[in-house]
Amino acid sequence: MTARRRRLVIVQPYIPKYRAAFFEGLITKLASMDIDCNVAASAPSGDQSARNDGVTPDWVTTIVQKRLTIAGKSISLGGARPVWKGADGVIVGHLGSSLDTYLAIADSKKSHRFKVGLWGHIKSYVSDGHPLDLALERWQLRTADHVFAYTPGGAQYALSTGVEAGKITTVMNAVDTESLTQAVTATTAAQARRFMDVHDLKPRRTVAFLGGLDESKRIDFLAEVLDILWLEEPSLKIVVGGTGAQASLLARAAARGQAIMLGYATPDLQALVGRVASAILMPGRVGLVAVDALVLGLPILTTDWPYHSAEAEYLVEGRSRLTSHNEPKSFALMIRNYLESLDGATVPRYPLSQQYPTIADMIDNFAGGVQKMLDTTKAKR
Fold first, then answer.
1. Which of 139, 313, 128, 288 is closest to 210 using CA atoms?
2. What is the pTM of this model?
3. Which candidate, 34, 347, 17, places its Cα nearest to that of 180?
4. What spatial distance separates the first Cα and last Cα of the chain, rounded to whole Å?
5. How confident is the model at residue 352 (pLDDT cuts 50, 70, 90)?
6. Where are the beta strands (DSSP E) in 197-274?
7. CA distance 248 to 4
8. What does the pLDDT average to over 37-60?
9. C-alpha distances in angstroms, 273 versus 176, 246, 343?
10. What is the overall mean pLDDT for the chain?
11. Could you tell me the fold of the domain covering 177-341?
12. Architecture of the CATH domain 6-174+358-375
């Protein structure tokens, strides 16, 4: 007797370019396991829209997620419930302020067959969190059928709230490492020299920024640091791969030729940046850029700001990460000291064989968690 194919829906705020390869691979992997996967997502809004990285592949069901702002707090009013109607399970964001998450949990309580999973940081990394939100999110964790944590730190937090170990999958959040690795291998020294000549870049006097130019990355802090470095080390330049709502904050540095604004960074462009830069600067949130940095073989220079994302766990202090006090002058001094330490030496590069989370591993981890979730036998209510 042929097994019945099952249907899963994953709800996302929007689909950024860096997530497309993951979802495409996951959909294919799950199809081989007799699970049809559909992704429901809305269009990007606010700072997300300004990043100019949203995509709408044919495997996406477009929804409208209305939002309500009360006392400065944004609450998602949902919109994905019609998409998961009749499905065997849904995976929603682990958010205390998301109506879709509560609707999914409510639907799972009504049906013995329907399963709900939570996906996200799980632990509150990027903010202190409102006590009510944190309490609601702990309740969500204990009530859901399965938890998909980005990193081991999130999985450990779920355990501490009382979630059974068998109901937790550590996803090992990653970007499209295969495309970036191929681009790194294909980029030549001649291409790097031409790029440096065009932009008047000097060896061991070039750093990079990769990511969205928005508030979470603290572009205002970076601009202040560049002002300090301009007075102390005018030969130092930064190549910036990214777009966002706060790009204008770097206009002063760009006007004096200190910042080279490259726009959205494709894997080919990231690989080229990796050949000419000595480090990646990230005074704000260190997130998935940690994976990019490991593939590129560049350390991340950051601060002890307390709101780095889960993926900062992938970095090792003193090797793939250097941290200064959370103050512009301290950060500028660390940058200068690091670059001066490279004089007369080869810029340290990490071999591509070094362990880092890959998109293939992430797909396998996630698909295994989906199968566990859907195979779970729930007590009849």
1. 288
2. 0.87
3. 17
4. 29
5. very low
6. 206-210, 237-241, 259-263
7. 54
8. 77
9. 17, 21, 19
10. 91
11. Rossmann fold (3.40.50)
12. 3-Layer(aba) Sandwich (3.40)
